[in-house]
Design a protein that fits this description.
Helix content: over 70%
Shape: elongated
Largest sheet: none
Oligomer: single chain
């Protein structure tokens, strides 16, 4: 991975992390004020909890991507240490999927939110679950790459003994 690519990706990650902190601090307060003055006021705590936890899940993914990019730059991504970050990402995506679904469940009762919005949230939850499955497939590819790297190292060691 080139230096420019890493720099661009890290710049995007920093911007996204800063934006997520902004959402957690400023936007959550503004959301609380808006929800408090609406028909959803009785559901304020669950809505805010889901939003904040959703942002935390996104932050976990961003930090894990940062660490994986660091491992790529160092040439250590094909190691067992990379799996910890991939597992955290899968867990964060699964959590985010459940949180989006939970938001739909919280918003569904009553007439405060249109049924189409609840349906869209169900679709979004399914899409985020799909992303978790894609990362799981990529984890399997990483496992194959690590196994091949270990095998190649073993063969190089055997060849070095022969020579």
């Amino acid at each position: 991975m080139g230096k420019l690519t890493v720099l661009a990706l890290r710049t995007v990650l920093v911007a996204l992390l800063a934006g997520s902190l902004f959402v957690q601090t400023v936007m959550a307060v503004l959301l609380a004020v808006d929800v408090e003055d609406s028909a959803l006021s009785g559901r304020l705590v669950p809505i805010l909890t889901i939003v904040v936890l959703g942002v935390v899940a996104a932050q976990v993914v961003l930090v894990c991507v940062w660490r994986l990019v660091t491992m790529v730059r160092r040439g250590t991504v094909f190691s067992l240490a990379a799996f910890r970050h991939v597992h955290l990402m899968i867990g964060a995506f699964l959590s985010a999927s459940l949180l989006v679904f939970a938001l739909g469940v919280v918003l569904a009762p009553g007439e405060a939110v249109a049924p189409g919005i609840v349906l869209l949230l169900g679709g979004a939850a399914l899409a985020v679950f799909g992303v978790a499955l894609v990362v799981l497939v990529l984890r399997m590819l990483l496992a194959q790459a690590v196994a091949r790297d270990v095998e190649a190292s073993r063969m190089r060691a055997e060849l070095a003994e022969v020579i």
